[in-house]
Design brief:
single chain; 204 residues; mainly alpha; two-stranded antiparallel sheet; 10 helices
């Protein structure tokens, strides 16, 4: 109850205070390339319930229509990424749109990152049940540990195999540990660490 109350208050305040920034991002996206402001993709949430996550669109719209191919992964300097999208991805500002999902209750500020159904189907059942027992979040230990996931996959001979066999299991273990050790103090530390990381990545 305390966690949900904090999520509502913090996300609501964030949406209000960041409104000028969010509007500027939306305008930049529309001026940069045709298509919608938001990228919506099916993710698996708490108790296995699917929802469409909000992200600011960072790719050319016609190139992200399919959700059934390896386009689910972004590898290195992906040619689908727009000029504005590259900046949003580098600074993680594209994730700010998920404050909407937090406010309406589909997500939390801190929690295991929500995956697409294709990869959730690969979770071992005990870990799947544990990770999906809580609301997914905007940030978590796995998000911080694999902040440069795209570059990591770019160095792999087979990015899809690298993700499925190496990255995904490691992220899943970190997410399961988060669920076991979750606390308000721990969440606050993760929020501070995330904000510090974002600040350090902001162009000067």
């Amino acid at each position: 109850m305390v966690k949900r109350l904090f999520d509502v208050l913090a996300s609501g305040l964030g949406l209000l205070l960041l409104a000028p920034c969010l509007l500027a991002i939306a305008i930049a996206i529309k001026l940069d390339s045709p298509g919608p402001v938001f990228f919506r993709q099916v993710r698996v949430g708490r108790h296995g319930v699917t929802f469409r996550i909000h992200k600011f669109r960072t790719m050319v719209h016609r190139e992200i229509a399919s959700e059934t191919t390896t386009a689910l992964l972004t590898v290195g300097a992906d040619p689908r990424i727009t000029r504005v999208g590259a900046l949003l991805r580098r600074t993680k500002l594209d994730e700010l749109a998920q404050l909407i999902d937090v406010f309406v209750g589909r997500m939390s500020l801190v929690g295991p990152r929500p995956e697409v159904p294709r990869y959730v189907a690969l979770y071992p059942k005990p870990l799947r049940d544990k990770v999906l027992s809580v609301r997914p979040g905007i940030t978590d230990p796995a998000s911080l540990a694999f902040r440069d996931e795209s570059a990591l996959l770019a160095r792999a001979a087979d990015p899809e195999r690298e993700y499925v066999e190496v990255v995904l299991p490691a992220k899943l273990q970190l997410s399961a540990r988060y669920v076991d050790e979750a606390s308000f103090a721990g969440d606050w530390q993760l929020i501070v660490a995330t904000l510090r990381t974002l600040w350090n990545s902001t162009p000067t």
